[in-house]
C-alpha cells in the first residue's frame, strides 16, 4: 500500500515547550487560540484497529479501525531515545528528579495535546478529596470515587515508568508523557501494564481498588512535572471530563502545596498572556498600586493650622509625634519661625 503523505498543517509539533515568537503576532494569536481550546475525550473506544500505515514521517502513523474510520497518531516509540524517556528514568522511585520546585522557571508552557494526540479523562466525577494538605499531611493529587474492579484508563499517550506496589500508593502506575509530564494512578486492585510499556490515551492500565493507605475504593490521580506535583484540576475539569487547555501555561506557584485550582476568568486570561502582555500588565498593575498608595497616604494626611503661641514641641506633643518628624514632613528646620494661619502637616 502506498505511503500516505502527511499534510503540513495536521502536525502541530511534538509535545514540547511552547515557543513564543515576539515578532509574529498573528502566529502567536493563532497558537494561543488553538492552545486555549478545551478537549473532550478523544480516545476511540469500541473499535479495534485493523491496520497501521506509514506516512513518510517515522513519528506519525495512520491507524485504520475496523469500523472504517482512521486517524493520524503519533508513534511515541519513534522518540524512544528522547532524553524525556531516558534521563531520570527510574522504575521504582516516585520522584527520580530529587530537585526542588524552586529550580523550575517562574513561567513556562507545555503542549498537553496537539492535533495528533488523544486524551481520555481518567474518570468523570466530582472530586472527593482535593489537592493540598489533608489532616496535616500533604495530599499531592486528587481522589476520585472509583468502584473496585472498574478499568482505569490512562489520560494521555506515553510510556509506563512505574508499575509496582509502592507504599501508601498501593498498586501504582506512573506514566511519563512526551512533554515531561507524569500522571500517577494509585490504589489499584490490579495493574495491567509493566514498566517500559507504551500506552495510548484510553488504554486500560489497571483496575480500581483500595490498596495501600486507603479508606475505601477510589482512584488517586496525580500530575507532576519533574517530580513537582500540582493540582490536576488545573488541567482537567473532572465533573465534565474536559481537558481545560491544549496548551498549559504553568506558573511556579502552582507547585505550592496550598495552591488549588480556582475557576476565575480573569486568572484564565492571565495564564495565557504573552510575555509582552505580561510586561504591560505588570506596568499597569504597578501604576495602579502607586496610585492607590498615594490616595491612601493623602487620606491619612493630617494638618494643623498654626495659632498664636504654638511651638513645634507643643504641636508634636499634641499629635503624638516628634519635632524631627514635623520638620521632615514640612521641609523646615527646628529654628523655622511659625507663622500664624499657616497649615502644618502633622501626619
Structural notes for this entry:
- With 347 residues, the protein is α+β, with helices and mostly antiparallel strands.
- It has two domains: 263 residues, Glucose Permease (Domain IIA) (Distorted Sandwich); 47 residues, Membrane-bound Lytic Murein Transglycosylase D, Chain A, CATH 3.10.350.
- Helix content is 17%, strand content 27%.
- The chain has five helices and 21 strands.
- Strands 7, 9, 10, 11, 13, 15 and 16 form a seven-stranded antiparallel β-sheet that branches.
- Strand 15 and strand 16 form a beta hairpin.
- The longest helix is centred in the last third of the chain and has 26 residues.
- The N terminus is likely disordered.
| Helical residue percent band | 10-25%
Largest sheet data: 7 strands, antiparallel
Which regions have little confidence, pLDDT < 50, spanning 5+ residues? Answer: 1-23
Number of strands: 21
Shape estimate: elongated
Number of continuous helical runs = 5
Q: What is the domain tally? A: 2
What's this, in brief?
The protein folds into 2 domains: 1-263, Distorted Sandwich (Glucose Permease (Domain IIA)); 301-347, Membrane-bound Lytic Murein Transglycosylase D, Chain A (Roll). The chain is built from 5 helices and 21 strands.
Amino acid at each position: 500500500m502506498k505511503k500516505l503523505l502527511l499534510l503540513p498543517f495536521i502536525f502541530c509539533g511534538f509535545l514540547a515547550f511552547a515557543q513564543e515568537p515576539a515578532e509574529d503576532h498573528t502566529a502567536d494569536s493563532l497558537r494561543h487560540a488553538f492552545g486555549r481550546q478545551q478537549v473532550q475525550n478523544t480516545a476511540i473506544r469500541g473499535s479495534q484497529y485493523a491496520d497501521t500505515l506509514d506516512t513518510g514521517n517515522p513519528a506519525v502513523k495512520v491507524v485504520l479501525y475496523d469500523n472504517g474510520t482512521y486517524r493520524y497518531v503519533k508513534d511515541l516509540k519513534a522518540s524512544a531515545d528522547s532524553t524525556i524517556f531516558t534521563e531520570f528514568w527510574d522504575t521504582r522511585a516516585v520522584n527520580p528528579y530529587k530537585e526542588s520546585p524552586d529550580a523550575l522557571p517562574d513561567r513556562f508552557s507545555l503542549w498537553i495535546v496537539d492535533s495528533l494526540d488523544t486524551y481520555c479523562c481518567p474518570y468523570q466525577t466530582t472530586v472527593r478529596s482535593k489537592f493540598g494538605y489533608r489532616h496535616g499531611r500533604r495530599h499531592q493529587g486528587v481522589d476520585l470515587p472509583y468502584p473496585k474492579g472498574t478499568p482505569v484508563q490512562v489520560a494521555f499517550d506515553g510510556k509506563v515508568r512505574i508499575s509496582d506496589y509502592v507504599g501508601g500508593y498501593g498498586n501504582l502506575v506512573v506514566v511519563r508523557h512526551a512533554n515531561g509530564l507524569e500522571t500517577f494512578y494509585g490504589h489499584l486492585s490490579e495493574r495491567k501494564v509493566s514498566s517500559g510499556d507504551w500506552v495510548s490515551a484510553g488504554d486500560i492500565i489497571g483496575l480500581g481498588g483500595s490498596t495501600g493507605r486507603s479508606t475505601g475504593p477510589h482512584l488517586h490521580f496525580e500530575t507532576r512535572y519533574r517530580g513537582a506535583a500540582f493540582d490536576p484540576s488545573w488541567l482537567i475539569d473532572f465533573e465534565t471530563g474536559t481537558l481545560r487547555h491544549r496548551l498549559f501555561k504553568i506558573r511556579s506557584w502552582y507547585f505550592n502545596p496550598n495552591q488549588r485550582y480556582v475557576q476565575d476568568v480573569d486568572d484564565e486570561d492571565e495564564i495565557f498572556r504573552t510575555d509582552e502582555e505580561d510586561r504591560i500588565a505588570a506596568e499597569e498593575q504597578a501604576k495602579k498600586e502607586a496610585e492607590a498608595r498615594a490616595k491612601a497616604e493623602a487620606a491619612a494626611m493630617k494638618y494643623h493650622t498654626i495659632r498664636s503661641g504654638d511651638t513645634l514641641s507643643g504641636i508634636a506633643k499634641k499629635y503624638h509625634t516628634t519635632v524631627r518628624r514635623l520638620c521632615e514632613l514640612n521641609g523646615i528646620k527646628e529654628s523655622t519661625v511659625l507663622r500664624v494661619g499657616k497649615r502644618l502637616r502633622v501626619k
